[in-house]
Amino acid sequence: MSETSYLLLAVLIGGAITLGLRALPFAILKPLRRSRFVKSLGAWMPAGILLILAVVVVRDEIVARPGQLWIVASAVVVTVCTHLFAGRRALLSIAAGTTVYVALLNLL
Length: 108
Description:
This protein is mainly alpha-helical.
């Protein structure tokens, strides 16, 4: 087998495997779309993942700056209050909390 045909065959096999692996979840999920379990996962997983991400980030910042806990707490309070009182707009609340955190961290 020539080197060119070997490489082409390897690319074709890799492409077929990749396509199959990408299509497999959709083929499996199609019968489950009417499942109550899958619908509840779709409703709760985004919030759960966001909560885990927020806890990890806040924990890392508290560990990185133990003497400046109030800065992290202030940014979290601003984020939550903005989210609750500004129409639950995630991007706005994240931007407000990040702005407060960066401003307090750099100004003090």
